[in-house]
Amino acid sequence: MLNNIKVNTLNFIFKDLIENMKEIEIIQPDDWHVHFRDKEILQAVVPETTRHFGRSIVMPNLLPPILSAKAAIEYKKTIQKAIPKDNDFTPLMTIYLTENTDKNKLKEAYLDGHVFAVKLYPAGATTNSASGVKNIEKIMPVLETMATIGMPLLIHGEVTDKNIDIFDREKVFIEQKLDFICREIPQLRITLEHITTREATVYVKEGNQNLVASITPHHLAMNRNDIFSGGIRPHNFCLPILKKETHRKSLVEVAISGNSKFFLGTDTAPHLKNDKESECGCAGVFNATYCMAILAQIFDDNDALHILEKFTSINGAKHYKQHLNKKKIKMIKKNSPIKFNSILSINDKDIVIFKPNFPVYWEVEH
Ligand code: DOR
Ligand code: ZN
Question: Best substitution site from 32, 58, 127 to test ligand 1's pocket, by max atoms within 8 Å of Cβ?
Fold first, then answer.
């Protein structure tokens, strides 16, 4: 009885301590999914990511896409030149999978250490995905090779059939495509990227140990109403599209659970303001700048600050068999909400920076 009272008191004090925490220090985070683009956009956005993150997996959906080790090496050099001085950020390069990808060349690129992973875009699923995969059967030999050498496969998990409702495309992809791949090649190390549905959380939780998922800050922060609040909000349009509140809650639930199968992939996806505010606006949310602040707020609001580090800095590194970053970052909770810059300027053009519709009190100390 007395012991119970002691334990309860301690729990109470511990919870209270965490809830009132004004400062946390965590292992430097990694971003396991980023779009750096090229040319002047690349120059502007790379420092937004390298400011906080230690490593990122860089998406290959440029025009033309990164199809070979040679192209990945060139692209990596361009990125490295844009990293601010005295910053030891590491870009991890990917190859864009097509039905013509040569499995032997891929194996060589991986074993040489030039390429970290392969990205599977279903053809037509999203930005610059036209050269992607139409028929999964055709890539099975490449996937078999990848499983043998331990090379990770990153999947944009949406079907492209226009008869399938846009809000159901992830769920149907899991049922029709992902399940097939997982059953045929259970040894393949798969990341189902930027998951958006309860179904995805359940499938990944229950799936084999090689199947994991990444989650973006914007899918944790918003639901589909945010695309239409008071009018159309093109800056909240991304793919997979935001889903209902029940799905958002499921994503938050797995993120704050600490389950090692779920980790951060920001899918920070810069597009020029004019290209989003257009008759046919591009999909993508540019969230690199305040990502860590927003995540700290979401975890704090859910009494899960003590799990943040697992989600941003541990689970992904473990899945990708990488060491944990040696550095730490400190985050501070202010007494009033932080003010967000709303624009990243590129010469005379703008990129709109993601800002959630709730107050954020946390910021990364610099
Ligand atoms: O919203 C998105 N934007 N989703 C993607 O899958 C691609 C990305 C982009 O490249 O713009
Ligand atoms: Zn992406």
Answer: 127
What pLDDT, in 10s, does the model give residues 12-62? 555 555 656 799 999 999 999 999 999 999 999 999 999 999 999 999 999
Residue type, position 257, single letter: S
Residue 68's pLDDT is 98
Q: Would you kindly state where each structural domain of the chain is located, as residue ranges?
A: 24-364
CATH of the domain spanning 24-364, picked from 3.40.50.20, 3.20.20.510, 3.40.50.10540, 3.20.20.140: 3.20.20.140
Amino acid identity of residue 207, one-letter, is: G
Is omega for the bond preceding 141 within 30 degrees of 0, making it cis? no
Distance 210 CA to ligand 1 centre (A): 24
Q: Please report which ligand is nearest the Cα atom of 31.
A: 2
Q: pLDDT at position 14, please?
A: 58
pLDDT for res 90: 98
Residues whose beta carbon lies within 6 Å of some atom of ligand 1: 35, 61, 126-127, 156, 238-239, 267, 269, 283-284
Which pLDDT tens digit goes with each residue over 149-198?
A: 999 999 999 999 999 999 999 999 999 999 999 999 999 999 999 999 99
Q: Is 38 annotated as catalytic?
A: no
The beta strand positions in 130-245, using DSSP E, are 153-155, 190-192, 211-215
What pLDDT is recorded for position 21? 74
CA of 60 to the centre of ligand 1 (A): 11
Residue 116, CB-side half-sphere exposure with 13 Å CA sphere: 21
Question: Could you count the other beta carbons within 10 Å of the beta carbon of residue 56?
Answer: 25
Residues of the chain with pLDDT under 50: 1-2
Query: How far away, in angstroms, is 36 Cα from ligand 2 center?
Result: 10
Closest atom of ligand 1 to 283 CA is 1
Dihedrals phi, psi of 85, to nearest 5 degrees:
-55, 150
Ligand nearest to the CA of 57: 2
Residue that is written with structure tokens 């601010």 in the block: 84
